[in-house]
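Recall the central idea of this unit: under ordinary conditions, the amino acid sequence of a chain determines the structure it adopts. In this exercise we apply that idea directly, starting from the sequence alone.
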Amino acid sequence: MQHVVRALQGVSVDVSDYQRKRDFLYGKLTELGYEIVRPQGAFYLFPRSPIEDDVAFVEALQRWNVLTVPGRGFGTPGHFRISYCVEDRVLEGAIEGFARVAKEFGL
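Accordingly, the structure predicted from this sequence is:
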């Protein structure tokens, strides 16, 4: 393993792809009324759930094939976690589900 690490010392990750995905998802969700602090790094968003029960909200998203995780598992109850380190088509396809659930809960 040490040989592998030595060979990777000059390798870097192009973060522009993650920034583009973040900006796309952040823009679409805020247009729909979701409250989000725009992250400066990583590849997760933690929007505020429009209802107090983040588990119930995540379950509502699952009905539209949108997979997120309740924020309470990460110390942020009342929020949910979205990973944007997926294919663009996955993010684009999730927007309709986010819109329908936002409407359902009055956003």
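Strands lie at 44-45, 69-70, 80-83.
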